[in-house]
Design goal:
It is elongated and about 65 Å long. With 151 residues, the protein is α+β, with helices and mostly antiparallel strands. Helices cover 36% and strands 17% of the residues. The strands form three sheets. A three-stranded antiparallel β-sheet has the order 6-5-7.
């Protein structure tokens, strides 16, 4: 039998556990701190590996570079056999970027403009992205006269 640490899935599993349960992990704030958990069954690596190898559609692809285990596609907040799917890493990153986009409005006088993201507002209004983010946080009117708010 292959030692757990030598199993190519071990690192993926360990990273999932760490970002969900270890506050010192850099990604904890976007996983564990937001209530993302791991199913009781998958807290045990042997169960996780067994399910990936025997029950998860395309689970065998996780042994290859360029594939991720994703819980978001099915809209869940828990890593489990029922909730996870295998995606190309590139597709997973694209989904993550889309999730992070938050629509904002820019109001000035009687005019309201809606943007899909801070980045889009920054490009179209020619205002520094960081400046827009600061004014969003503060809830104050920007020097351009726009009041930025999340929609």
């Amino acid at each position: 039998m292959v030692a757990k640490r030598n199993n190519p899935l071990y690192r993926k599993w360990r990273n999932i556990i760490s970002r969900c349960y270890m506050p010192y992990n850099n990604n904890f704030k976007t996983y564990g701190a937001k209530g993302v958990t791991v199913s009781q069954r998958w807290l045990d690596f042997d169960n996780f590996a067994y399910d990936v190898e025997n029950h998860l559609p395309n689970g065998h692809l996780l042994y290859e570079k360029g594939y991720d285990l994703d819980k978001d596609l099915k809209g869940g907040n828990i890593y489990s056999l029922e909730n996870c799917t295998v995606l190309l890493s590139e597709e997973n990153r694209k989904i993550a970027r889309e999730k992070q986009k938050k629509a904002i409005s820019a109001k000035r006088n009687n005019e309201e403009l809606i943007f899909d993201s801070v980045a889009e507002a920054s490009r179209q209004l020619n205002i520094n992205r960081g400046s827009i983010q600061q004014y969003l946080k503060r809830g104050e009117v920007h020097t351009s006269g726009y009041l930025f708010q999340y929609v």
